[in-house]
Amino acid sequence: MSVPLAGRARAGVRRVGGRWVRRLGLLPGGEPDQLGEDDRLTSTVLPQPVLVFFPEPPKNVYQLEQWYAPLHALAAELPVVVLTQDSRTTRLVRAGTDLPVHCLARTATLDGLVARGDIGLALYVSHHPRNFAALRHASMAHVYLGHGDSDKGGSASNPLKAYDYAFVAGDAAVDRIRQTLTWYDADARTMLVGRPQLDVPAAGVPPEQPHQPPRVLYAPTWEGAQPSVRYGSVTTHGAPLLTSLLDAGLEVVYRPHPRTGANLQRVGEVDRALRRLVTEHPGGRGRVDVQGAPEAAMRDADLLVTDISSLAMEWLPSLKPLVVTVPTGEGLEVPHSPLLDTVPRLRAEEASTAADLVRRLLDHDEDVARRRALVQHYLGDTTPGAATLRFVSACRTVLEAGRAERRRLPERARR
């Protein structure tokens, strides 16, 4: 009798200790705190037909934030509910949107909500492993939205196979998936919706003429979770690039990725040094932008220097000059793509003379026609509002098709 009692005592200590670890924020990066509201959800009935499942920690809220406007447009026709697994994330999402948000820690709570409600469509903006808590439910259609369509290797990876459909921006994404994944019918399981985020006008009025001096936006991506996708240029290009631009008298805006330094402490240290370099430069023409919307930062810049990332694609409709860095590193997977084959590339060893390239592009932009041709390929119809309409229509189509398929199943399979 003493062994089971001792075992239960140890389990109780682990539960209490684990809860304090979560409350004190001592979890490994990427793990939600699982401080849910489960007790008050035991009899809740969700009336919404659309679920957004977001089990990410607060550092990754930017992934969902970019979908707020499209989700509000969707909710006007098909009500939407957001389910999280982190109390800190929940507070941030509730502060940023008026969509209903519930935080749950237990899989049983999710099972009960799905069983009692009438959810027919589940949306996901990341590939977090905890997505499988919702993906296991065959009563819903499951759609991957992602949080940025780009030429990164992660945009065409095997986790896509877990979802019924992937909503992608344009033909470039379909080509990328078709050329990368085996045993995956990209034509049947992808739906083109454009980039609804670009339908939201950035605050203010874009300048009619380039700034004087010209304003350069340097917006690198983060270091990535694996060596194969470490496209970030903070450590390889950052200091010589920014020094070159500032010494040349250009106005510089440094906008680091929200996850910069999340996986590698050294990258975080370099990022802090770059912030000091920009703000303390004697010319006084540099600033750091970490608060405003990326759309506003891009609208106000005359030229963008970025890495292989979604920002490069989203910059295309502006038709302004674009430079994409060349990443370096062991085991790195650098794809070929129409965009990367078109725009000027900046190698690490060239970063110290970046101002020469920037001045040349600002004075003689010879690639504007080629970039214009890429807009349709990467983004589809960029007429304001068109992508949002396609997104809402695609959600309705998948929801209705999924329910029709469920009705065709035998009664036993629906239980």
Looking at the overall shape, the CATH architecture of the largest domain is: 3-Layer(aba) Sandwich
Strand content: 5-15%
Could you tell me the number of beta strands? 13
Contiguous uncertain segments of 5+ residues: 13-28
Strand order across the largest sheet: 3-2-1-4-5-6-7
Task: Find the CATH topology of the largest domain.
Answer: Rossmann fold
Q: Total helix count?
A: 17
Going by CATH, the homologous superfamily of the largest domain would be: 3-Deoxy-D-manno-octulosonic-acid transferase, N-terminal domain
Which CATH C-level class of the largest domain is it?
A: Alpha Beta
Q: What general outline do the C-alpha atoms trace?
A: globular
Order of helices and strands: HEHHEHEHEHEEHHEEHEHEHEHEHEHHHH
What does it look like?
The longest helix has 23 residues, at about 385-410. The protein has about 425 residues and is α/β, with parallel strands linked by helices. The chain has helices spanning about 1-25, 60-65, 70-75, 85-95, 105-115, 130-135, 170-180, 185-190, 240-245, 265-280, 295-300, 310-315, 340, 355-365, 370-380, 385-410, 410-415, and strands at about 50-55, 80-85, 100-105, 120-125, 140-145, 165-170, 190, 215-220, 250-255, 285-290, 305, 320-325, 345. Helix content is about 40%, strand content about 10%. It starts with a helix and ends with a helix. The protein folds into 2 domains: about 30-200, 3-Deoxy-D-manno-octulosonic-acid transferase, N-terminal domain (Rossmann fold, 3-Layer(aba) Sandwich); about 215-380, Glycogen Phosphorylase B (Rossmann fold), CATH 3.40.50. α3 (about 70-75) packs across α16 and α9 runs parallel beside α10. It is built from 17 helices and 13 strands. The strands form 2 sheets. Strands 3-2-1-4-5-6-7 form a 7-stranded parallel sheet. Strands 10-9-8-11-12-13 form a 6-stranded parallel sheet.
